[in-house]
Write a structure and sequence with these properties.
The complex is a heterodimer. Chain A is mainly alpha-helical. Chain A has 13 helices and three strands, in the order αααβββαααααααααα. Chain A has one domain. In chain A, 67% of the residues lie in helices and 4% in strands. Chain B contains 27 helices and 26 strands. Classes of the chains: A mainly alpha, B alpha+beta.
C-alpha cells in the first residue's frame, strides 16, 4: 500500500501546465499595449518566475503527508488572522502596508515585493474548516439538529471574522470568494438537508426583504447606500447595469471589456491584434485579451480548460478515501469555481465588476503561488489515495 | 469502520455531484453569455470601435467683410502670420508640451513673458520637471485625495525657493508662457499660440522646424481691421476670441468650437450668422494610440458673406467732423455756461427706404479733455426732445378730433389752479395749427392736451377736468411714429427711452411739448422720416445687402440677399392732416418768423422740419442746475424727401444768445449731403477714399485715430 504513495495525477498537472502556458503567452501579447509606467516590467517573464516558485512549493508539499497539515492548522489560522488584523489597523503603516485603488490589502517588503494576505488566507481557511469538519463528524457520529447547528456555528465562527476583515479593506471580490468557500464546505459538511434548506431560504428571505425595501423606500436607502461605505459598491452596480451611461466613471472598465471581447467575434482578430485599451489587462482583465485575439473559439477553449480543471478536482475529491482530503478539495473547488465564474462573468456583464484575478491566468505573485499551493495539496491528496480493487 | 465509511461514501459523492452540477451550470452560463457578447453583438462592438476612429475637425474660415453703400471697403480682414497648436486626440502629456514649448521658445520671441506668467504657472512647470520630488512631499492622507485635490496639494507644497530661479530667467519664462498657451488648446482644435507681431523670420524658422514640433502649424490667419479707424466703428462692433463661457452649450450645438471668434457687439454680433461662413471640415483618421494617420477634406469651407452697409462712409466722415467741430465751438464759446454739455448726436437716413446714411455721436470727455467717438449713444441715450415732437402732438389732436384743421387758439400764459403758470417762449397771439408749428407754440399744444384729457372749457387759474387714460391715448399716437417704442433697427440693442409714470394733468401738458418722456436720436429720426414719408413708418436699416465674398477687395460679389424697405406701419392720421403738418414744418424752415428760418432760408435744397428746446435739469452733488437740450429734426427736399435727420445736443447752458449748435449741425450735415451729391453727379463716387487713408497711415492699427482732413 505504501508503494502507491508516489502516484502522481498527470492529468491535473497537464491542465495546470497548459494554463500556465496560456497565461504567459497571453501576458506576452498584452505587454505592448500596457500603460507606459508598466512597460518596465516584463510580466510574462515574471509570471514564469512565479510559476517556477509555485512549482517548488508543490514539490515541498509533496514531501509531507497532507494529514500533517492538521497539526499546524491553528498556528496557520492565527498567522493569517494576525496579518489581516494588521492590515485592518494599518499597522505598522507605510511603507510596510500598501494601499492601492482605495483598498488596504497588501504588505510591502523591500526585496520581495508586495504580498496579499487574503490570498493565502483562502487556503488556510479551507484547511481549517476541513479539519474542524472532520473532528466534529468524528465526535458527533449520530446527526441531530443540535449537532448540525453546533457544526454550522463552528464553521461560521471561523469563516466570518476573516470575511469581514477582507470586506472592510474593502475587497468585495475576496469577500465573495470566502463566502463561496464557506458555502461549498457547508454543502458537503454532512449537515442535513432540512437545515441547509432552512439556511438557503433564510438567506433568500433576507435578500428578498432588502430588495423589496429598496424598491419601497428608494429615497432613504439610496442616500444610505451613497453616503456609507457601500458607496463604492452601489456605484459598481450602476456601472454594471448601464456601462454606456457611466462610461466615464464606474462603467468604464466594463464598457471597454465588452468592446474588446465582443469585437473578437467568432474567431478573433488574430495574434497581437488588439484595438481596445482595457485597464488592468495583465491581471483581472486577462480574459479580454484572449477573447479579443482568439474570439469565441479561443475563449471557449480556455473556459473548457478551466472546467476540466474543476472536473478533475471533483474527481480527486470523489476518489479520495479520506474525508479530510475530500473536504480540502471541495474547498478548493468552491474557491476556483467561484473565482473563474466571477472573473469571466464580470467582463461579459453577467456580474458586477470586482477586483478578482482569474486563477492561473492573471498575473500576480500572491495569487499564483496560492493557487499552485492549493494544487500541491490536491496532488498530495491524490497521491495518497489508496485504490481498492472493487471500490 | 467499514460501516462508517460506507455512510460517508453514500452522502459525500451525492453532494459532490450536486456541487459539480452547480459548477457545470455556471460554466454553461459563461459560454452562453460569451456567445451572446461575441457572436450576437460582436459586430456592434466592432462598429463602435471603428466609429471612434474618425474625428472631424472644423477649421475656421475668414469672416465676411463690410462695405459702405457705394462698395467701399469699411471693415477688412488683414492677413496675419499665426502659429497654432493642435493637440492630438486625447491631448498631449505635460512633458510633451514642455518639450514643444522649449523648442518653440528658441524659435520665437514672446514679449514680456513675466507679465503673462502667474505663480501657479511657474509651479505647474516646476511640477512637470520634478514630479517625483513633488509627489514625495505629500503625506499619506493627501495621497488618498481625489486627483484634482491631490494635484492642488502638490502645487501648494511647491515653495517660493523652488521656483525662485525662474524669476530672472527670461528664456524659461518664455517657455512657461508658451506652455500656458499650449495648455489652453483642446484636442484636435487649432489654438493660436502667437498671432500678433509674428515676424517673417520667426514664421520661417517655425515653418522649417515643423517636423520637430508635433501639433504646431503656421497657417494663414487674419484679424479685423476697420479701414477708416474710429469712423462708424461703434456700429461695426467687435469680435471676441473664444465663445462665451456662460453660453458654451448654445454655441457648441451650433457648430462653433471653443476657440472660435464670434461677433461680440454691433453688426458683428447682429449679422453673426451671415459673417461667420461655413467651416472647412476635415476628417482625421486616428489609430488606437491617437496619432493621425490620414486626413480627408469632407466639406470645403466657405468664407463668410460680406455685408453692404447702408451708410455712406464719406458722408459719415464729414458728419463726424461737423458734429465734433460744432460741439467744440459751442463748448469753447461759453465754457462756463456750457460746463455740463458733452454730447452731440446725429442720425441721418433716407426716409423712404429707411437706409441709414450716417450716425454720429461725439463726446467731449471732461476728464481727459479729449473728443471721443461715442456714436452708439444715438441708439443708447434718450433725452427730452422739446418742441421737435410737436408734429406728433398736432397730428394726435387732429386725428382724435379735439381740434379741426385751421383751428385757432389765443397764445397767452396758461394757469391751472394750484400749478405754476405755463407759456410759450413769448405770447404769440392768435395761432392756428400751422402757425403753432411754425412759431412753436406751447400753448396750442396745451390746448390739444387738455382737450384730449376731456377739458374743453379751460379758464385761467381754474382747475380742469381730466381723464388720466388720455395719457395712454396720446402715447399710442406717438408710438405710431416710433416715439417711445423700438425703431426696429438691425442692431443688437436700442433704448426705447424713459416713460414718465405719473399721469397727472400737468405732466400730460409737458408731454405734449416734449418735456416729459425721453426719446433716442434714432427715434426722433424715425418720427421725422415718418412725417416726411407721408405717414409710412419704415424700419431703419444699417445693412442693405448680403453679398458673396470675392478675392478682390475693390469688387463686390454677387448679391445673396437684398433688404427691401419694410413698412412697419402707416400712422392712422388722414393724409390731409399730414399735409398740414408738413406745411407747418416747411414754414419753420422757409418762412420768415419760422424758428429755423434764419439758418435755412438760403438753403437751395428746400428743407423742412422742426426745432426743439427742452428744459433739462442737471443735479450735481444734490444741487440743481438748469440746462437745455437743443434738438432739430428735418428733411429735404420738401417735395421729394431723400434725407431726414435728427440732431440732439443735451445739456447746453440755459442762456440767451446760446450758440445755435442744433441749427449749425443741421445745416452743416445737410450741406455736406447735398454737396457730396452734386460732386458725385459730376465726378462719380470717390472710390479711392480708402487708398488716401491708407497712404497716410500705412495700415497700422495705432494710426487708426480719427484723422480725415483729406476730405475737406
Amino acid at each position: 500500500m505504501q508503494t502507491k504513495n508516489t502516484k502522481l495525477d498527470y492529468t491535473l498537472i497537464s491542465i495546470v501546465l497548459l494554463l500556465g502556458i496560456v497565461s504567459c503567452f497571453a501576458l506576452y501579447t498584452v505587454q505592448p499595449g500596457l500603460r507606459p509606467d508598466l512597460q518596465d516590467d516584463q510580466f510574462y517573464l515574471k509570471q514564469i518566475v512565479w510559476y517556477i516558485v509555485g512549482s517548488m512549493f508543490i514539490v515541498v508539499i509533496m514531501l509531507f503527508d497532507y494529514d500533517r497539515l492538521r497539526q499546524i492548522v491553528w498556528p496557520l489560522y492565527a498567522i493569517g488572522m494576525i496579518a489581516l488584523l494588521m492590515l485592518f489597523f494599518n499597522f505598522p503603516g507605510e511603507p510596510f502596508i500598501r494601499t492601492a485603488n482605495g483598498a488596504t490589502s497588501w504588505f510591502s517588503f523591500p526585496a520581495i515585493g508586495t504580498i496579499q494576505p487574503s490570498e493565502f488566507m483562502k487556503v488556510i481557511l479551507i484547511i481549517t474548516l476541513a479539519h474542524v469538519l472532520v473532528k466534529h463528524n468524528d465526535i458527533h457520529k449520530k446527526r441531530t439538529n443540535k449537532s448540525d447547528l453546533l457544526l454550522l456555528f463552528k464553521i461560521l465562527i471561523l469563516s466570518v471574522p476573516p470575511m469581514l476583515l477582507i470586506a472592510v479593506q474593502p475587497d468585495l471580490g475576496g469577500f465573495l470568494v470566502f463566502i463561496a468557500i464557506t458555502a461549498s464546505i457547508i454543502l458537503i459538511s454532512g449537515i442535513r438537508w432540512r437545515i441547509l434548506f432552512g439556511l438557503l431560504f433564510g438567506a433568500l428571505f433576507i435578500t428578498g426583504i432588502l430588495v423589496a425595501a429598496y424598491f419601497l423606500f428608494p429615497g432613504p436607502i439610496q442616500t444610505f447606500l451613497e453616503e456609507s461605505i457601500f458607496k463604492y459598491v452601489s456605484g459598481r452596480f450602476y456601472g454594471w447595469l448601464q456601462p454606456e451611461k457611466f462610461v466615464q466613471t464606474s462603467g468604464n472598465q466594463l464598457y471597454y471589456a465588452l468592446l474588446a471581447i465582443g469585437s473578437g467575434q467568432l474567431v478573433g482578430k488574430g495574434l497581437m491584434d488588439m484595438e481596445v485599451y482595457v485597464a488592468e489587462r495583465q491581471t483581472d482583465m486577462i480574459f479580454t485579451a484572449i477573447a479579443e485575439q482568439f474570439g469565441f473559439v479561443g475563449a471557449s477553449i480556455v473556459v473548457t480548460l478551466l472546467f476540466l480543471l474543476i472536473y478533475r478536482l471533483i474527481h480527486v475529491a470523489l476518489q479520495s478515501n479520506d474525508v479530510f482530503g475530500s473536504y480540502l478539495v471541495t474547498g478548493m473547488i468552491g474557491m476556483f469555481s467561484f473565482q473563474i465564474f466571477q472573473n469571466i462573468g464580470m467582463s461579459i456583464q453577467l456580474l458586477p465588476i470586482t477586483g478578482l484575478p482569474l486563477p492561473f491566468l492573471s498575473y500576480g505573485g500572491s495569487s499564483t503561488i496560492t493557487y499552485l499551493l492549493a494544487i500541491g495539496i490536491v496532488l498530495n491528496i491524490h497521491s495518497r489515495t489508496k485504490e481498492y480493487m472493487f471500490d | 469502520m467499514g460501516k462508517k465509511k460506507k455512510k460517508k461514501f453514500q452522502q459525500l459523492p451525492f453532494r459532490l455531484n450536486i456541487l459539480f452540477f452547480i459548477v457545470f451550470l455556471l460554466f454553461s452560463t459563461l459560454i452562453i453569455q460569451l456567445g451572446v457578447v461575441q457572436i450576437l453583438f460582436g459586430e456592434d462592438a466592432q462598429d463602435k470601435i471603428n466609429a471612434t476612429e474618425n474625428q472631424t475637425t472644423y477649421n475656421p474660415v475668414p469672416r465676411g467683410e463690410m462695405y459702405d453703400r457705394f462698395g467701399r471697403l469699411v471693415l477688412k480682414n488683414e492677413a496675419t502670420r499665426a502659429i497654432t497648436y493642435t493637440p492630438p486626440k486625447g491631448g498631449a502629456s505635460a512633458e510633451e508640451k514642455v518639450t514643444i514649448a522649449e523648442r518653440l521658445a528658441e524659435l520665437i520671441d514672446i514679449k514680456n513673458p513675466e507679465d503673462k506668467v502667474t505663480e501657479r504657472d511657474k509651479k505647474e512647470y516646476w511640477y512637470v520637471l520634478n514630479q517625483d520630488e513633488a509627489n514625495s512631499r505629500l503625506t499619506a492622507e493627501e495621497k488618498e485625495l481625489e486627483i484634482a485635490e491631490q494635484y492642488q496639494a502638490t502645487l501648494d507644497k511647491i515653495t517660493q525657493s523652488d521656483i525662485r530661479y525662474l524669476d530672472d530667467n527670461e528664456d524659461l519664462l518664455e517657455v512657461i508662457a508658451i506652455k500656458k498657451q499650449l495648455d489652453r488648446a483642446y484636442e484636435l482644435a487649432p489654438y493660436i499660440v502667437k498671432n500678433t507681431d509674428v515676424t517673417a523670420e520667426e514664421y520661417a524658422k517655425v515653418a522649417e522646424h515643423l517636423n520637430e514640433l508635433p501639433g504646431i502649424d503656421v497657417p494663414a490667419d487674419w484679424k479685423r481691421q476697420p479701414v477708416y479707424g474710429f469712423t462708424f466703428k461703434n456700429f461695426i462692433g467687435s469680435i471676441m476670441e473664444g465663445i462665451p463661457s456662460d453660453n458654451t452649450d448654445y454655441y457648441l450645438a451650433r457648430g462653433y468650437s471653443r476657440s472660435d471668434r464670434i461677433g461680440d457687439t454691433g453688426l458683428e454680433n447682429q449679422y453673426e450668422n451671415v459673417l461667420r461662413g461655413m467651416k472647412e471640415q476635415i476628417q482625421y483618421t486616428t489609430n488606437k494610440s491617437g496619432n493621425v494617420v490620414d486626413s480627408e477634406v469632407k466639406l470645403k469651407g466657405t468664407q463668410g458673406n460680406d455685408l453692404v452697409l447702408s451708410v455712406d462712409i464719406e458722408l459719415q466722415q464729414e458728419v463726424d467732423k461737423i458734429v465734433k467741430e460744432e460741439l467744440q465751438t459751442a463748448i469753447e464759446m461759453y465754457p462756463y455756461q456750457n460746463r455740463f454739455m458733452k454730447d452731440a448726436l446725429v442720425a441721418m437716413l433716407n426716409p423712404k427706404t429707411g437706409e441709414i446714411l450716417a450716425l454720429s455721436g461725439q463726446r467731449f470727455n471732461r476728464e481727459t479733455n479729449e473728443y471721443e467717438d461715442n456714436s452708439f449713444r444715438v441708439l443708447y441715450d434718450a433725452h427730452r426732445p422739446g418742441s421737435a415732437i410737436k408734429g406728433a402732438t398736432v397730428l394726435s389732436g387732429l386725428q382724435s378730433g379735439v381740434i379741426t384743421p385751421g383751428q385757432q387758439f389765443y397764445d397767452r400764459p396758461i394757469k391751472i389752479k394750484g400749478t405754476p403758470e405755463k407759456s410759450s417762449y413769448r405770447s404769440l397771439g392768435t395761432v392756428n395749427d400751422i402757425d403753432a408749428l411754425k412759431r412753436s407754440s406751447n400753448v396750442y399744444m396745451f390746448y390739444i392736451a387738455m382737450r384730449l384729457g376731456g377739458e374743453f372749457n379751460y379758464q385761467y387759474n381754474k382747475s380742469i377736468s381730466y381723464n388720466p387714460d388720455s395719457f395712454q391715448e396720446i402715447r399710442n399716437y406717438f408710438s405710431q411714429f416710433g416715439l417711445g417704442v423700438e425703431t426696429g433697427i438691425d442692431y443688437p440693442y436700442e433704448s426705447t427711452g424713459y416713460k414718465g409714470s405719473n399721469p397727472a394733468a400737468g405732466n400730460l401738458l409737458d408731454f405734449a411739448i416734449g418735456q416729459y418722456d425721453t426719446y433716442t436720436t434714432m427715434q426722433l429720426a424715425q418720427y421725422i422720416s415718418t412725417i416726411a414719408n407721408d405717414g409710412y413708418r419704415i424700419r431703419p436699416r444699417l445693412v442693405k445687402e448680403v453679398r458673396k465674398p470675392t478675392v478682390y477687395n475693390d469688387k463686390l460679389g454677387a448679391v445673396l440677399k437684398s433688404y427691401n424697405p419694410e413698412v412697419m406701419n402707416r400712422i392712422d392720421m388722414d393724409q390731409s392732416y399730414i399735409d398740414r403738418v408738413q406745411e407747418g414744418f416747411y414754414k419753420v424752415y422757409q418762412e420768415s418768423g419760422g424758428t429755423a428760418y434764419s439758418y435755412f432760408n438760403d438753403a437751395p435744397y428746400d428743407p423742412a422740419g422742426k426745432t426743439g428746446t427742452a428744459e433739462n435739469e442737471v443735479y450735481v452733488d444734490g444741487k440743481k442746475y438748469n440746462t437745455e437740450n437743443l434738438t432739430l429734426v428735418g428733411y429735404a427736399p420738401y417735395d421729394n424727401p431723400e434725407v431726414a435727420f435728427a440732431v440732439v445736443v443735451p445739456n447746453t447752458g440755459a442762456i440767451s444768445g446760446q450758440y445755435p449748435i442744433n441749427h449749425k449741425i443741421g445745416r452743416g450735415i445737410l450741406d455736406a449731403y447735398f454737396n457730396l451729391k452734386a460732386e458725385r453727379d459730376e465726378n462719380g463716387v470717390n472710390m479711392n477714399l480708402q487708398e488716401q487713408e491708407q497712404n497716410e497711415e500705412t495700415g497700422d492699427e495705432t494710426a487708426s485715430k480719427e484723422e480725415n482732413s483729406e476730405s475737406e
